[in-house]
Specification:
This protein has 414 residues and is α/β, with parallel strands linked by helices. The chain has 19 helices and six strands. The protein has a six-stranded mixed β-sheet, with helices on both faces. Strand 2 (101-104) and strand 3 form a beta hairpin. The relative contact order is 0.10.
């Protein structure tokens, strides 16, 4: 590594400060220790291991509640599916779940949502519920009720707490409550009604001896409204660095607030991908580094589109829910590459970003030992970082446009 390139990386690492985006506290400490010791290869190794850990991070979400509470509908909504989609959870007013049933996320395979039978029934008494449901398997729990929460719900919450895990109370079907309250009222105030429902739930839980309960009000049919965005943000922010990122990417793209959180989560990973690219350019054979850069671009661009619900399957699901055509939703997308991510198109963008002359020059420079490799590494970092940053900005804006288009006349389409 040349002195110029060492200075570049040292200045860049110091600029980032103590907490590096996208790294856990432990990873940040290892990274900074290596940088301070001047061991840049070790620092880059930490980033590679962090990226690999993120790729393999699994997330298991448990949903429980009594029959008719809306568990299955919630599971479908959180996975951006319609109730009659092929991989949707079966809905019904009777208990349709006899055993813990797994529902993988359609575009994020590392995320699995589990439908658990209701606690306190004849088939699932409270005394044996925890062991039968294998509670240690899950990262957190969502307890759903369509009316008042029961003593069984609070007992379950206390047991979850003993395991050192998080639980969240969700009051479902608030759209039905609002519709009933609206009938025959001249002065209807939605926020007052929602607060009344929330206060009633909290009071109910306190009477059942649960300290400082928090309740989120949601509607399966208006999943972009009420407390749903806040619930989703809370779930992700309560997790560790990697699990939180995985969940943000999997959350439905049904609110502007969540879309912005997705963008922030993905932004934190860009520098890591660019750094991985530069390590390849620093050690690879000539002519192969460009191919590796294109692969990194395609993988990350595809991930961005899936995270924002801009892939073909996600757009079909959204279109079906809002009763619009996929072409209607695509008509507002301005990023051409998002509609057709291919190696060829990514390569064209790479040429545009560096210039064809720069690509050819890169091959020649790579032939020069040490100097060529170090120069190529710095250049690769800058180019890949900027390309991914720009693409993320473009698809994030497209996601906002698609959401706005999808919600046009949504109230009349239900």
């Amino acid at each position: 590594m040349t002195e110029d390139s060492k200075t570049y990386w040292a200045d860049l690492f110091l600029k980032w400060g103590r907490k590096l985006p996208g790294l856990s506290e432990e990873e940040t400490e290892k990274f900074q220790t290596a940088v301070k010791a001047g061991n840049f290869s070790e620092a880059l190794s930490v980033v590679k291991m962090s990226d690999e850990l993120l790729r393999n991070t699994k997330l298991n979400i448990a949903i429980t509640g009594n029959a008719g509470a809306g568990k299955s509908s919630f599971i479908n909504a959180i996975r951006s599916l319609n109730d009659d989609d092929q991989d949707a959870a079966q809905t019904g007013v009777i208990e349709t779940t006899n055993n813990p049933t797994s529902y993988p996320h359609p575009t994020q395979p590392n995320v699995t949502v589990w439908d658990l039978p209701g606690i306190g029934t004849t088939n699932f008494p409270a005394g044996t519920y925890l062991s039968k449901m294998e509670f240690t398997r899950y990262d957190f729990f969502i307890i759903i009720a369509a009316g008042r929460f029961t003593e069984s719900d609070t007992n379950l919450a206390k047991e979850i707490q003993k395991l050192g895990k998080k639980f969240y109370f969700v009051r479902s079907k608030v759209d039905t409550d609002l519709a009933n309250e609206r009938k025959g009222r001249r002065n209807f105030n939605e926020q007052e009604i929602l607060q009344k429902i929330r206060n009633d739930c909290v009071k109910n839980l306190k009477q059942l001896e649960l300290d400082s309960p928090q309740v989120f009000l949601v509607s399966r049919w208006d999943f972009h409204k009420y407390d749903s965005p806040q619930l989703q943000k809370t779930l992700a922010n309560d997790l560790d660095t990697h699990r939180g990122h995985v969940l943000f990417c999997a959350l439905p793209s049904t609110s502007e607030e969540i879309l912005e959180e997705k963008k922030k989560a993905l932004q934190k990973q860009i520098w890591k991908q660019a750094l991985i690219s530069c390590t390849i350019n620093a050690v690879t054979f000539p002519f192969l580094s460009v191919e590796c850069d294109v692969k990194i671009l395609v993988e990350n661009m595809t991930k961005y589109c899936k995270s924002f619900g801009l892939d073909e399957d996600s757009l079909k699901s959204i279109a079906k829910q809002v009763r619009k055509s996929v072409d209607d939703l695509k008509s507002v997308m301005q990023c051409a590459l998002a509609k057709n991510i291919t190696r060829e198109e990514a390569f064209k963008r790479l040429i545009e970003a560096t210039g064809e002359g720069m690509i050819k020059g890169k091959y020649v420079i790579d032939m020069i030992p040490l100097i060529g490799m170090a120069t190529a590494a710095v250049r690769s970092y800058k180019v890949i970082y900027e390309m991914l940053r720009r693409f993320l900005d473009e698809v994030a804006e497209d996601a906002q446009r698609v959401l706005k288009k999808a919600l046009e006349g949504a109230e009349n389409n239900q």
